[in-house]
Amino acid sequence: MHAAPVRAHAIPSVTTALRAVESLLLSGGQRTARRNAWTAVLEDRRRAKDRVEAEHVLEAVAAHRS
């Protein structure tokens, strides 16, 4: 009795699948623009989080001094 051959093909991730669909639907320039826009969104979120953290630190310092 022989064992079935093992295949080493990885199942594509959701990200890989979405990028494949994206490449079919959008031209290169549109893909670049969308990725740049998403990068900007993520950076804005990071800066907003940093602002909130800085505000909390300043409030804690002000409360400590009072």
Structure description:
It is a single chain. The N and C termini lie far apart (82 Å). The protein has helices at 14-25, 28-65. The longest helix has 38 residues, at 28-65. The model has no long low-confidence stretch (mean pLDDT 86). With 66 residues, the protein is mainly α. It is elongated and about 80 Å long. The chain has two helices and no strands.
What are the salient characteristics of this protein?
0% strand; 2 helices; 66 residues; mainly alpha; elongated
Separate helix tally: 2
The number of E-state strands comes to 0
Give the N-terminus to C-terminus distance in angstroms: 82 Å
Mean pLDDT rating: 86
Structural class assignment: mainly alpha
The largest β sheet comes out as: none
Give the uncertain stretches in residue-range form: none
Give the SSE layout.
Layout: H1 14-25, H2 28-65
In short:
With 66 residues, the protein is mainly α.
